[in-house]
């Protein structure tokens, strides 16, 4: 009797889960037929492709961040009280030690192809491989989702419905081209596809067939993946012959509140003001004649850098200082695998809520913090520094 009761309860729970999972199925099918279909046909997708790829497609309601059909539900509340993660947390030596050997092996394996890619796009191989490492662990990370289903679900009931609808149509155009099968077109839960984690629109613009097999394959072709990353950076303005940046010592006579790409000046001018490389070596002669800017991801509590325009090209791949710095640092470590010279000093523990409150106070005082989002970008850092100096303190450009 106990086993029978347990089985009955299990069956009821299973039936209920199926009922919940199918709540939006009819509306979803109508959305695909009446909204996506006409837009895709106008974009050049054939009816045969639509019939083949959309038949039987159901929404994946397990995806995070969904709000309801038409994007009309209540959006998930942003948890501003979540723990704020200081930059030091992104740069554990163990991460780099795990990634460096794989990058070195790929450099040897694909030496000839990487030479051709560098010649065509002007992007160093170490930068290409560092992005691939960060995005998918050189292809070792699990990319488990059906890209079309993810995009269709987000277009139907996600927070950025119109954005994902355009990405869904781009994905249908990829399937129309025959570059990849539906079964192989795998993505993250956010719809980013393959080894380089391209959204479908980026795939259409920047993916290339570099191995000559007639297909732009970022899901299994290592050569196509590397060339596509290089093409993306090239098209976003990578400056050939320049590095991403240099770790430096910024003397106390230069305020950390001068950080930011809108405060660029010739690197030679920074040298005259006392900025030196941590290695003790001079800057390359050709770099001295080029502009750069101060970068202090943790204010005076961490390493400092002179960043070039190419640092901000890396941010075109992912709009995050620590992402771009991770990529640049990993690229450097393929050589000697040495960490930063300066330490990430311990900082006061805080929360995103506390940071957001601070940003709102700075905004009220007339500072441009780049938006009160609970994250500390360069505009927030230098605003903190200016407020500290105004109050008569030495600027650290960090909370605390």
From TrEMBL:
Write one Gene Ontology MF term.
peptidoglycan lytic transglycosylase activity
Start and end residues of each Transglycosylase SLT domain: 37-332
Q: Which GO terms describe its biological process?
A: peptidoglycan catabolic process
Recorded hits in InterPro entries, A to Z, give: Lysozyme-like_dom_sf, MltB-like, MltB_2, PGBD-like_sf, SLT_2
Q: Quote any Pfam family the record assigns.
A: SLT_2
Q: Where is the signal peptide?
A: 1-21
| Superkingdom, taxonomy of origin | Bacteria
Matching SUPFAM superfamilies, A to Z? Answer: Lysozyme-like (SSF53955), PGBD-like (SSF47090)
Q: Which UniProt keywords apply?
A: Signal
The protein's matches in PANTHER family, at most eight in alphabetical order, are given as:
LYTIC MUREIN TRANSGLYCOSYLASE, MEMBRANE-BOUND LYTIC MUREIN TRANSGLYCOSYLASE B
Its recorded name reads: Lytic murein transglycosylase
Species in which this protein is naturally found: Roseibium hamelinense
**Lineage summary:** Bacteria, Pseudomonadati, Pseudomonadota, Alphaproteobacteria, Hyphomicrobiales
């Amino acid at each position: 009797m106990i086993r029978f009761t347990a089985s009955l309860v299990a069956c009821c729970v299973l039936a209920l889960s199926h009922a919940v999972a199918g709540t939006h199925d009819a509306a979803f099918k109508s959305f695909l037929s009446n909204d996506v279909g006409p837009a895709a046909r106008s974009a050049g997708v054939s009816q045969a492709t639509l019939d083949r790829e959309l038949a039987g497609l159901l929404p994946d309601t397990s995806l995070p961040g969904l709000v309801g059909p038409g994007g009309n539900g209540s959006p998930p509340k942003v948890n501003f009280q979540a723990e704020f993660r200081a930059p030091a947390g992104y740069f554990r030596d163990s991460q780099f030690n795990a990634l460096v050997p794989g990058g070195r092996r790929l450099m040897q394996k694909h030496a000839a192809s990487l030479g051709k890619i560098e010649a065509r796009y002007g992007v160093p191989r170490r930068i290409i491989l560092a992005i691939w490492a960060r995005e998918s662990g050189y292809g070792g990370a699990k990319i488990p989702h059906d890209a079309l289903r993810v995009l269709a679900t987000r277009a139907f009931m996600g927070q950025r419905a119109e954005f994902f609808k355009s990405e869904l149509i781009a994905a249908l155009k990829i399937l129309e081209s025959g570059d990849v099968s539906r079964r192989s077109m795998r993505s993250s839960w956010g719809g980013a596809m393959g080894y380089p984690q391209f959204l479908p629109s980026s795939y259409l613009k920047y993916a290339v067939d570099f191995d000559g097999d007639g297909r732009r394959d970022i899901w299994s072709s290592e050569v196509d993946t590397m060339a596509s990353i290089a093409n993306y950076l090239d098209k976003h303005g990578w400056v050939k012959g320049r590095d991403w940046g240099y770790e430096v010592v910024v003397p106390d006579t230069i305020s950390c509140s001068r950080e930011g790409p809108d405060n660029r000046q010739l690197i030679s001018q920074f040298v005259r003001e006392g900025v030196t490389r941590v290695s003790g070596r001079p800057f390359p002669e050709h770099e001295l004649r080029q502009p750069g800017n101060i970068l202090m991801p943790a204010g005076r509590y961490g390493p400092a850098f002179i960043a070039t325009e190419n640092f901000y090209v890396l941010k075109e791949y992912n709009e995050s200082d620590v992402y771009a710095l991770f990529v640049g640092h990993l690229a450097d470590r393929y050589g000697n695998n040495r960490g930063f010279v300066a330490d990430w000093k311990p900082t006061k523990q805080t929360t995103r809520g506390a940071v957001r409150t601070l940003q709102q106070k700075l905004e009220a005082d007339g500072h441009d913090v780049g938006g009160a989002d609970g994250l500390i970008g360069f505009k927030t850092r230098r605003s903190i520094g200016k407020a500290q100096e105004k109050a008569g303190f030495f600027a650290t450009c960090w909370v605390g």
